[in-house]
Specification:
- This is Delta(3)-Delta(2)-enoyl-CoA isomerase.
- Keywords: Lipid metabolism.
- Helix 1 (28-47) links the parallel strand 2 (10-15) and strand 3.
- The chain has helices spanning 28-47, 70-74, 80-99, 116-122, 140-143, 149-158, 161-169, 176-182, 195-209, 215-225, 227-233, and strands spanning 2-7, 10-15, 54-59, 63-65, 105-109, 112-114, 126-130, 136-137, 187-189.
- It starts with a strand and ends in a 12-residue tail after the last helix.
- It is 47% helix and 16% strand.
- It has 245 residues and is an alpha/beta fold.
C-alpha cells in the first residue's frame, strides 16, 4: 500500500508496510496502487500548469523496496513464470509514469532497494540515501534471472558502463557512498532514522521549486536526455516552448 501527502507544492508518495508486505515488494496490487497515486498527482499538476510541483518517493521500515514479489508469483497455482512476467510487464508503465511526470522527482531511500526496487529509485531524477543503513543491489545474477530490456536501457542511460558491469554482472551491493562514487546517488544523509532522508529530499525539492520551471518543458527535457529509454517505454517526445522572458 502507499499514501500521498502534500507539503506545499511537494507531493510525498510513501510506500507503507502491511502484514503481508513489509518489504514493499512489487506485486500487481502495489504497482497498481502506486500508478493510481501518480496518476492523481499528474492530474493535479495538469490542472494547475502555472504552479511548479515536485515528487518525493520514500518508504517506511527497513526497505525502500525489495523488488518483485517472487513469493506472490510462486503462490499462484504453479504458474510462476506467467505471474513473474505479469509483474515485469505491469512495472514497465510505472517507470514510464515517472519518466513522463511533469515535475522533478526524488527518491528518498530509507533502506534497502533491490532489483525492481533499485530500478524504481533509478527512474527518479534524483536519489538521496542513508549513509549508515541500506544497500542498492541488482540481485538477478545471483538468483538466476536475466533483466527485462527496459531495465537494461534504464541502467544503460543512467549509469556508466564500468559501474553497470559491477552492479548488473557482479551483483555488487552499494552503500550510499558507493552510490555517490558511481553517480547513482546524489547525496547521502547521516541520521538516527530514515526521517533525515525525507528531510533532505524535501530540502532538495524546495530548491528545485524555486526555479519555477514549467512542468511540461521540464518533462520533455528529461525525455530528451534518455531517448532510448523513451523509445523502449513507448513515450513520444515533443518540442515545447513556454517563453519566460
Amino acid at each position: 500500500m502507499c499514501s500521498v501527502e502534500k507539503r506545499g507544492n511537494i507531493f510525498i508518495l510513501t510506500l507503507k508496510s502491511d502484514d503481508n508486505n513489509d518489504e514493499h515488494r512489487l506485486n500487481p496490487t502495489l504497482i497498481a496502487t502506486i500508478r493510481s497515486a501518480i496518476a492523481d498527482i499528474k492530474s493535479q499538476s495538469i490542472s494547475d500548469p502555472q504552479t511548479p510541483f515536485a515528487l518525493i518517493t520514500t518508504a517506511t521500515g527497513k526497505f525502500f523496496s525489495n523488488g518483485f514479489d517472487l513469493k506472490w508469483a510462486q503462490s499462484q497455482s504453479g504458474k510462476f513464470l506467467t505471474h513473474l512476467h505479469q509483474m515485469v510487464d505491469s512495472f514497465k508503465p510505472l517507470v514510464a509514469d515517472l519518466v513522463s511526470l511533469l515535475m522533478p522527482t526524488i527518491a528518498a531511500i530509507n533502506g534497502h532497494a533491490a532489483a525492481g526496487g533499485f530500478a524504481l529509485a533509478l527512474a527518479h531524477d534524483y536519489v538521496v540515501m542513508r549513509k549508515d543503513k541500506g544497500v542498492l543491489y541488482m540481485s538477478e545474477v545471483d538468483i538466476g534471472m536475466t533483466f527485462p530490456e527496459y531495465f537494461n536501457v534504464l541502467f544503460r542511460e543512467k549509469v556508466g558502463w564500468k559501474w553497470r558491469r559491477e552492479i548488473m554482472m557482479r551483483g555488487m551491493k552499494l552503500k550510499g557512498e558507493d552510490g555517490v562514487k558511481m553517480g547513482v546517488v546524489d547525496e547521502v544523509v547521516v541520521g538516527i532514522n530514515g526521517d533525515e532522508v525525507l528531510e533532505k529530499g524535501l530540502k532538495l525539492g524546495e530548491e528545485l521549486l524555486k526555479k519555477k520551471w514549467n512542468g511540461e518543458v521540464y518533462c520533455e527535457i528529461r525525455k530528451g536526455l534518455y531517448p532510448d529509454l523513451c523509445n523502449e517505454l513507448g513515450l513520444i517526445r515533443k518540442n515545447v516552448i513556454v517563453p519566460r522572458l
